[in-house]
UniProtKB/TrEMBL annotation:
The lineage of its organism: Bacteria, Bacillati, Actinomycetota, Actinomycetes, Kitasatosporales. Residues 182-271 form the SnoaL-like domain. Residues 112-162 form the RNA polymerase sigma factor 70 region 4 type domain. SUPFAM superfamilies: NTF2-like (SSF54427), Sigma2 domain of RNA polymerase sigma factors (SSF88946), Sigma3 and sigma4 domains of RNA polymerase sigma factors (SSF88659). This is RNA polymerase sigma factor (Sigma-70 family). Signal peptide: none annotated. PANTHER family: ECF RNA POLYMERASE SIGMA FACTOR SIGJ, SIGMA 19 FACTOR. It comes from Streptomyces pseudovenezuelae. Residues 14-75 form the RNA polymerase sigma-70 region domain.
C-alpha cells in the first residue's frame, strides 16, 4: 500500500470522527483553543501511527484524544493559578437556526454544567463526560483511560453524586426558559431594578470573567440578589456609551445573549434558571477577549434587543 493511500485513509478516518472528538475534549477542558490544540496532537499521533491494521478507528481515536486531553489538564491547571478573577469556560456560540461549524453542532453541556465539572478531578470528569454525555459503558471507558471497570464505576459514582447535588435533574420547557431569559435581559439592560430583583433568585450568583482585561469583572463571584442586581445594572449601563449591540444566540445549547461592539464580540451573557424556569439563579458573563475569538457576527444573527 502506498504512503499516499495510507495518509488519505488516516485523514478520512480522522475527519469522520473529528466532531465526536471535539465534543469529548471540549467537555473535558472547557476551552475551544485547548480543544483545537489537543485535536492537533491527536492528529499527529494518529497520522504517525496510520490507520493500517486498526480495526476500530473510532475507539482508537477516542482513546488518543481523551488521554491527550487528560495531559492537557495539567497545563490548564497551572494557567488557572495565575488567572485574574473568576474563570469561566470558553463559550460555544451558535444561533437559533443552527450553525454550519461542526464545533457548534457537537454534543456539549451547558455553561453552568461545565462550571460544576471544573470541581471534579480530571479522571472523574473524563468518566462523567464519556458515560453521562456520550453514553460510553464503563467497560469501554476502562479501556480508554487504562483503568479497571471497578475503578471506573467508582469514579462514575463519585462524579455523578457530585454533579447531581449541584445541578437539578429537571429543566423547564425551552419556551419557558426563553421567555425568562428575555425578561431578564430587558430588565438588566433597561435599568429596571424592580423587574430585575423580581426575576433574580434570592441566592443568585454572578460570575464575570474578564481575565483582567475588561470591566466590570470582580475578583470573585458575587452572591445574593441585591449585590447581583447592582453588578448587572452597572454592566448594562455600559451598553449605550460603548455603542454595544445585543443579539439573542444559543450558547452551549442554552438561550443567551451576545453583545457586539461593531462586528467584534464584547461579551457573552448566559443565564442559568431555576428548575421551574421562572427565576435566574446564575449569571455567567464572559468578556475576556481571548475567550471570544471564535464568536463571529453574521447576517442571520439572532433578533436585536
Amino acid at each position: 500500500m502506498s504512503e499516499t493511500h495510507v495518509t488519505d485513509e488516516a485523514t478520512d478516518a480522522f475527519m469522520d470522527h473529528r466532531e465526536l472528538l471535539f465534543g469529548l475534549v471540549y467537555n473535558m477542558l472547557g476551552s475551544v483553543t485547548d480543544t483545537e490544540d489537543v485535536l492537533q496532537e491527536t492528529w499527529l499521533s494518529w497520522s504517525g501511527r496510520g490507520a493500517d491494521g486498526i480495526t476500530n478507528p473510532r475507539a482508537y481515536l477516542v482513546r488518543i484524544a481523551v488521554n491527550h486531553a487528560l495531559r492537557r489538564r495539567t497545563t490548564i491547571t497551572r494557567r488557572r493559578e495565575t488567572y485574574v478573577g473568576p474563570w469561566l469556560p470558553e463559550p460555544l456560540v451558535g444561533d437559533d437556526a443552527g450553525a454550519d461549524d461542526p464545533a457548534l453542532r457537537t454534543e456539549s453541556v451547558s455553561l453552568a454544567m461545565l462550571v460544576v465539572l471544573e470541581s471534579l478531578t480530571p479522571l472523574e470528569r473524563a468518566v462523567f463526560v464519556l458515560n453521562e454525555v456520550f453514553g460510553y459503558p464503563h467497560t469501554e471507558i476502562a479501556d480508554i483511560i487504562d483503568r479497571s471497570p471497578a475503578a471506573v464505576r467508582q469514579l462514575a459514582h463519585r462524579a455523578r453524586a457530585h454533579v447531581h447535588a449541584r445541578r437539578p435533574l429537571y429543566r423547564a420547557h425551552p419556551r419557558v426558559r426563553r421567555e425568562a431569559t428575555e425578561r431578564f435581559v430587558r430588565a438588566a439592560l433597561g435599568g429596571n431594578i424592580g423587574a430585575l430583583l423580581e426575576i433574580l433568585a434570592p441566592d443568585v450568583t454572578v460570575w464575570t470573567d474578564g481575565g483582567g482585561n475588561r470591566k466590570p469583572a470582580g475578583l470573585r463571584p458575587v452572591h445574593g440578589r441585591d449585590k447581583a442586581a447592582r453588578l448587572i445594572t452597572s454592566f448594562g449601563a455600559r451598553r449605550d456609551p460603548r455603542g454595544l449591540d445585543l443579539r439573542y444566540r444559543r450558547v452551549n445549547g442554552d438561550d443567551a445573549v451576545v453583545l457586539f461592539e461593531g462586528d467584534a464580540p464584547y461579551a457573552v451573557m448566559v443565564m442559568d434558571l431555576t428548575a421551574e424556569g421562572d427565576q435566574v439563579n446564575g449569571v455567567y458573563i464572559v468578556t475576556n477577549p481571548d475567550k471570544l475569538t471564535h464568536v463571529i457576527r453574521n447576517e442571520n444573527d439572532g433578533e436585536e434587543a
